[in-house]
Amino acid sequence: MDIVPLLFAETVFGLLPSVKLLRDTSALSGCWADATDTYVSKMSLFQIDISATTTKKGQHCCEITQWSDAFKANRITVDQFLKLNRKYVRVASVTYKKEWKYRFESDLQYVPLEVIIDKLIPFTAEHFCGNPTTLAFDMAHDAPLYTALMQNLASLPQIQSLRFATLPGQYTHTFLLQKLRKQHLKELILEGNWTNDFTLALPKTIESGRLKELILYRSNLTVTKKMVKTVVNKWKESGGKEKLLLYGSTSCSGSDLNAILECSEIEVEINEDDYSRVLKLDNAPYQLFVEMWKMDGKSTCRVETKKT
């Protein structure tokens, strides 16, 4: 193969924020298409999972999964990961877990804390790709590892999906509010306790067009009438082209949802505990399903677009 096209592919494609941009090579031909195919075949996506708990002093469990272009999974060690050719490394997700369940002790890889903070996290931040990009914190506290992850990874502009669980610290609170107000964020899952600042900020973020999926799971935050109205209006304004999801506990009643949806063409199914409506627009790729149901005395609401 001609070395010039390959060097070009390694240099230019290595700067692309999205792995998906490499999948379509139909516009290329000859040696340029071959060079792109070679680059893609060598490149791998990585999923990194780190445990917050440890059974060995000064060490944490860390698991790195390598996904090839053929979507084959392979586990590698941190040492192997750090020695990889950086041209072909893209990190798709990092999860900070509370603990590993249902795993044998012999399957777990323990890594010194200083190696994770000083080597793994900076390397990961350097190679976080744009799509998909997920950062999940199954717990939050002020431990050095959590702080290092937040400071190095959470503020990256290419982060599109965030998940936070349990009571966040002040750093998380301030950071996430800034992220919602200023940066591109497609998906957000919030668990645990959050301040009223987020009740005010979330509808504005949805309205801006940035946030496409919001899940409030076992959270003190609830789906409000304003959130539902914002999602419905966003879907209408797009002509049914927006793909949206809103889910969580709610204080909304069936009459509240009726008031929001009263001007829409609808199919209705209502009983004492459950509420279901389907909104349609002519020639729209997505219908909008608005559902509410009760379980254990609590109401849950889901507003979701589905293919027509």
Automatic annotation (TrEMBL):
It comes from the Eukaryota. This is F-box associated domain-containing protein. It comes from Steinernema carpocapsae.
